[in-house]
Automatic annotation (TrEMBL):
Residue ranges of domain GST N-terminal in the record: 1-53, 136-202
Pfam families according to UniProt: GST_C (PF00043), GST_N (PF02798)
Gene3D superfamilies named among the record's database cross-references: 1.20.1050.10, Glutaredoxin
Tree of life domain: Eukaryota
Quaternary context: Homodimer.
Protein name: Glutathione S-transferase
Length: 342
């Protein structure tokens, strides 16, 4: 499951048409009050539930400095996007965008942080937490920040101070669920956990040991299938040929899926849709976008068409335009190239 998949999965949990008029994430719904924009959400949560917290100081001057940093942070994030979106699309950012980005880094390093441990005062605040979230973008894009030692020191200090920075998601995987102190990544494990914790009687993950075993088997098959899809198509993104051995393995798996796992059945397991169906169906968009010929696999086609018709949110979740898909591929190639040269 990729970042867009996890976004859409969360999006279906509330009535977003009224909760978030701009279709933005994250959005908080608290006792009927809907609020989007992460910085405003943090401010609201402190004001509502922790008015005396040093995270958002009550002193007007200190609070003003926190608010200033939150606004700087938002500008900085937009500058990161301005610079690196063209790169991910195979183009070069304009010189004025690069200059503005570097100037903000310099101001951050020499004016806002300087020799201080925190952005504002002697305590960790929302300003630190919000700005630290930008670090992952710089890190993943392999941005050289060696010229900004104060910024590097500040980041390292916060990473050491905040144990949950890496504990929540040490392998930096999406999606990751944090539920009442339990941090869990891998979409299949998340689905299993949510059913066990909050819907133990749901037919999505049947309680009968034999039925559950069949669901678990399909989830493991599905993960193998995804890896085989990746092995076949990733080489073509950079202009290479599909490796014959991996292609043969992939079609062998498709044949097994079509004739053995699905057969003439409506669902993978039993008479109800399960998380096995939901997980495997998410592979369909990859097959579509990769242009893989699945015409020999009639049962698979029928199964997918039936689920798409039954699940009204499928098309909403997976309505990826070709331009969005092309941009995703370009970003992947840019990231892969940067990783090799780092």
């Amino acid at each position: 499951m990729n970042k867009r998949d996890s976004y859409m999965a969360i999006k279906k949990t509330v009535d977003w048409s009224s909760a978030s008029r701009v279709d933005d994430m994250p959005t908080l719904v608290d006792d009927g009050f809907a609020l989007w924009e992460s910085r405003a959400i943090m401010q609201y949560l402190c004001n509502r539930y922790a008015p005396d917290s040093t995270l958002y100081p009550k002193d007007p001057k200190q609070r003003a400095l926190v608010d200033r940093s939150l606004n700087f942070d938002l500008t900085f994030l937009n500058q990161i996007i301005d610079v690196f979106t063209p790169i991910f699309s195979g183009n070069q950012p304009s010189a004025d965008k690069v200059t503005a980005f570097n100037n903000s880094l310099k101001n951050l390093d020499q004016v806002l942080i300087k020799q201080d441990k925190y952005l504002v005062g002697d305590q960790l605040t929302l300003a630190d937490l919000s700005l630290l979230a930008c670090w992952v973008y710089l890190e993943k894009a392999h941005i050289d920040v060696s010229a900004y030692p104060n910024f590097q020191r500040w980041v390292a200090g916060l990473q050491a101070e905040l144990p949950y920075y890496d504990e929540i998601n040490p392998i930096h995987s999406v999606p990751t669920l944090v539920d009442n102190g339990v941090a869990l990544w891998e979409s299949r494990a998340i689905m299993q956990y949510l059913c066990n914790r909050y819907a133990p009687d749901s037919t999505l993950y049947p309680k009968d040991p034999k039925q559950r075993a069949l669901v678990d088997r399909s989830l493991n098959f599905d993960l193998t299938f995804l890896n085989q899809i990746s092995a076949v198509v990733l080489s073509t993104w950079s202009g290479g040929d599909q490796p014959a051995d991996k292609l043969a393995t992939f079609h062998g798996t498709l044949k097994l899926l079509d004739q053995v796992l699905i057969g003439q059945n409506k669902y993978l397991v039993g008479d109800n849709v399960t998380i096995a169906d939901l997980s495997l169906l998410s592979m369909w968009v990859y097959l579509e976008k990769y242009g893989i010929d699945i015409s020999p696999y009639a049962n698979f086609q029928r199964w997918a068409a039936g689920l798409r018709a039954e699940l009204p949110y499928y098309d909403e979740c997976n309505s990826i335009s070709q331009s969005e898909w092309d941009e995703f591929i370009a970003r992947y190639l840019a990231y892969a190239a940067a990783s090799k040269t780092k």
